[in-house]
Amino acid sequence: MNKMIDNQNLVVENQKENSITFYTNAASIIPNYYDFQFVFTNQSLEEAKIPKVIRKELCRVFMSPQHAKVLSTLLTENVKKYEQRFGEIIVPKEIFASIEEVK
Predict the structure, then answer these.
(1) Distance from C-alpha of 98 to C-alpha of 93, rounded to nearest angstrom
(2) Residue 100: which pLDDT band, with cuts at 50, 70 and 90?
(3) Is 34 part of a structural domain of the chain?
(4) Is the separation of the CB atoms in 41 and 24 below 8 Å?
(5) Is the pTM of this model over 0.70?
């Protein structure tokens, strides 16, 4: 259990007893008027006569549009900090092309 004091002198207690940790190599986002769904999966390729992609869903996270926007800002800031410290994150052009195809 972590405790810290925020700038308003409130005690914030982080409880981790029931948290789940997992690695994901694929994610999708499903927005609608009321919320955003983040679907985290592990994706693998099954070798066969006709290869197929297997996606195992690990979890779904739902949040309000406001919370999703804050998360987006925090993620952008942290990626910038990461790149300043470790160098640019290289993403193959094919990844962005596949994202455009889905739109």
Answers:
(1) 9
(2) low
(3) yes
(4) yes
(5) yes
